[in-house]
Amino acid sequence: MSALQENPVLVVDFGAQYAQLIARRVREADVYSEVVPHDMPAAEVLAKRPAALILSGGPSSVYVEGAPRLAEGLLEAGVPVLGICYGFQAMTQALGGEVAKTGQREYGHTAARVVTDSVLFAEQPADQSVWMSHGDSVTRAPEGTTVTASTEGTPVAAFEDHERRVYGVQWHPEVLHSAQGQQVLERFLRQGAGIEGRWTPGHVIDELVEGIRAQVGEGRVICALSGGVDSSVAAALVQKAVGDQLTCVFVDHGLLRAGEREQVETDFVAATGVDLVTVDAVDQFLDALAGQTDPETKRKIIGREFIRTFEQAARDIVAGRAGENADDEHPVKWLVQGTLYPDVVESGGGAGTATIKSHHNVGGLPDDLQFGLVEPLRMLFKDEVRAIGRELGVPEAIVARQPFPGPGLGIRIIGEVTADRLETLRAADAIAREELTAAGLDDTIWQCPVVLLADVRSVGVQGDGRTYGHPIVLRPVSSEDAMTADWTRLPYEVLERISTRITNEVDEVNRVVLDVTSKPPGTIEWE
Ligand SMILES: Nc1ncnc2c1ncn2[C@@H]1O[C@H](COP(=O)(O)OP(=O)(O)OP(=O)(O)O)[C@@H](O)[C@H]1O
Ligand SMILES: O=c1[nH]c(=O)c2[nH+]cn([C@@H]3O[C@H](COP(=O)(O)O)[C@@H](O)[C@H]3O)c2[nH]1
Ligand SMILES: NC(=O)CC[C@H](N)C(=O)O
Ligand SMILES: [Mg+2]
Questions:
Q1: pLDDT for 10-64, tens place per residue?
Q2: Is 34 annotated as catalytic?
Q3: 494: which residues sit within 8 A by CB, 6+ positions away?
Q4: For residue 22, which of 174, 180, 391, 482 is within the disulfide window of CB 3.0 to 4.6 Å?
Q5: Mutate to test the pocket of ligand 1, among 230, 336, 371, 383 (most ligand atoms within 8 A of CB)
Q6: Can you tell me which atom of ligand 3 is nearest the CA of 87?
Q7: Running DSSP on this structure, what letter comes out for residue 485?
Q8: Taking the model in full, what pTM does it have?
């Protein structure tokens, strides 16, 4: 753990949909934050020496038998606390106040009146639009606290006790719909808890570089480089830390989009000057995927084959250099990956979360991994990675790129992955990307997976003849960090052009459909 990560702000997760979002907002205030499960014992929480605690929302009601409670002793430890929604109610209960179902439910935009000479609401308008999502309310604030906000349905919508450093709000300051939300969080962090902001890109880079040096020592390092944002920034960090010990390895697994290999081999190398090796592993991946249709199985196979490829590449690199310089005979001990916090969380590695899907670089790793992993970005969100990349001078064309998953088109063919199907999907994807770029929409959307429903056929008519082809799904999404997403309302003219071109130009496809599902309940990728 680095010095900047000491004394984190811990978000205690009571089963909120978006506990991660709270941590992200805290980091936007330049303070390091992590999520911990609500049932972590107080001693364990306090052993992390938190600078403050934020209690998240949650689906339960505090007065119900078996409802999640604050760990015993947590509130008494003298650590500043902010309760949000369920966390506010749980805190109320623990401090001797009262929570009940009043019949006054509030969902969505709600008008609140706040006390502006309070710690949380100073320097803000007295009338605020806040985002509510609750059916229970605090009916009596705990003794010693001052009520600092109310709404029509909720007389006790916030309270604080600056002496004990406990604060709470019924609404959700972490969502953008709460107009002063970020200010409220910052007031809590700075004035309430007295924390200075030190989690800035410059500081983070210094610490990560130092951490990489300490971890890898003199050893040789390879970096799994996709040309995407995360691995490019990870490579730039490692290059800065131990430049001449590093070789980047790009795997062409046959699941890439049109033009991708050339882009990495020429543009990326030209822009960064890294030492790059490309491995052609198309047959290896396609053979391993033959006959497989289950998404998790496909992901695990891809994860395994990636690692087998890196192992072979490491052996080749060492063999190629042996004799050149005696020091180079060290086998490669370290593998750098551009793993991010959301990859870890979704793969079930986060605090008390379910496995949604095994990301190839986390849950999809084989058990007999021969490398030590170097993952400098493992605790970071995408926007933080972009900020660090810019600070490091990574070109904007790379830093601003839309994400593309490591398993590539393999998880965008619903059904078995074959060379023919890849050909079809690659052609459709190239058209969609071309038209979105031409329409100037690249910065508006987070990414737009193009998906081939390979086991579905529908009847069409083309050139007076009957066709029986496959549908292509367009999945344009808007997102801040891929943890949640909304479907992007693309202009009809653009959709029309994409649809016409795909059905005209791509054999096998006679229908284009649009995915209008947010995340949740859908994920961004179909598998
Ligand atoms: N074709 C590839 N060759 C080598 N490594 C890869 C390849 N695809 C993915 N990886 C590795 O897996 C990691 C995770 O992939 P992921 O797509 O999340 O990140 P990225 O490609 O670096 O960035 P982005 O999210 O912008 O696409 C990468 O950071 C990289 O280390
Ligand atoms: O490198 C990756 N390896 C994977 O296995 C993987 N699965 C999903 N993604 C990307 O992660 C983000 C969230 O995707 P989902 O909503 O589908 O989980 C989106 O940006 C996805 O493109 C992956 N990236
Ligand atoms: N979003 C929440 O945290 C809800 C808390 C509690 N379940 C209520 O309805 O009031
Ligand atoms: Mg990628």
A1: 999 998 877 888 999 999 999 999 999 999 999 999 999 999 999 999 999 999 9
A2: no
A3: 435, 436, 439, 441
A4: 174
A5: 230
A6: 3
A7: B
A8: 0.80
- Give the domains, in start order, of the chain with CATH numbers: 3-192 (3.40.50.880), 201-399 (3.40.50.620), 412-514 (3.30.300.10)
328: pLDDT strictly greater than 80: no
Peptide bond into 520 cis (omega under 30): yes
Measured in whole angstroms, the distance separating CA 474 from the mean position of its chain's CA atoms is 21
CA neighbor of 59 nearest in space, from 32, 19, 20 = 19
Binding residues for ATP: 226-232
Q: Identify the burial level of 354 via C-beta atoms within 10 angstroms of its C-beta, where 0-12 means exposed, 13-18 middle and 19 or more buried.
A: exposed
Please name the residue whose Cα sits nearest to atom 10 of ligand 2.
405
Q: Which helix (H) or strand (E) holds 321?
A: helix 295-321
- Please confirm, yes or no, whether 330 is among the known catalytic residues: no
Ligand 3: which of 89, 101, 130 to mutate, judged by most atoms within 8 Å of the beta carbon? Answer: 89
Preceding peptide of 449 cis, ω within 30°: no
Q: Which atom of ligand 1 is nearest to the CA of 401?
A: 26
User: CA-to-CA distance for 273 and 270, rounded, in angstroms?
Assistant: 6
Residues with CB under 6 A from ligand 3: 57-61, 85-86, 133-136
Structure tokens at 499: 């649809």
Angle between helices 229-242 and 382-392 (to 10 degrees): 50
Please tell me the predicted confidence (pLDDT) of residue 326: 46
Answer yes or no: 85 catalytic. Answer: yes
